[in-house]
Design goal:
Low-confidence stretches: none
Structural class: mainly alpha
Shape: flat
Distance between the termini: 40 Å
Largest sheet: none
Helix content: over 70%
Mean pLDDT: 88
Strand content: under 5%
Radius of gyration: 21 Å
Order of helices and strands: HHHHH
Length: about 140
């Protein structure tokens, strides 16, 4: 498995897996039709995400190899304390907004008499998010 030992090989392997998922999803859709339509959609969607995400990663990796000074500058910026704080604050703010959006979705589903399990799953996600936030708060409060 020497191909997966480096970043380039890993990226290419995942791109190939993504392409295979897209092809498998398309073949499922063609030959099985309505029977496996949801599985076909999952395969195509997951494959498209893998291909696009790791194609971008491979492109950035190749730029870093061709221009090491740009890669070095990027590495310094990624590890810079100010940028780390900005990323953490942006992530926390996005998380807060997302929780309110899920809460709004729960209310809309309840108002429109959607299946109860849909609302319950979203509500459980909000509870899990709150528990994880508390756990990480206490963890980092003791650590820092």
């Amino acid at each position: 498995m020497k191909l997966i030992n480096n970043k380039k090989g890993m990226y290419i392997t995942i791109i190939i897996i993504g392409a295979a998922l897209i092809i498998a999803g398309a073949l499922l859709n063609i030959f099985k039709g309505e029977e496996l339509k949801s599985l076909s959609g999952v395969c195509i969607g997951l494959g498209a995400v893998l291909v696009s995400l790791f194609s971008g990663k491979l492109y950035v990796y190749r730029i870093g190899l061709k221009h090491p000074e740009i890669q070095r500058k990027k590495d310094i910026e990624v590890n810079d304390e100010r940028n780390t704080i900005i990323r953490d604050k942006a992530g926390a703010k996005a998380n807060n907004i997302f929780v309110w959006l899920i809460f709004a979705a729960v209310m809309v589903f309840i108002l429109f008499d959607a299946e109860l399990y849909i609302s319950l799953v979203l509500a459980v996600l909000i509870v899990i998010n709150s528990v994880l936030s508390s756990v990480y708060y206490y963890y980092y409060n003791k650590r820092l």
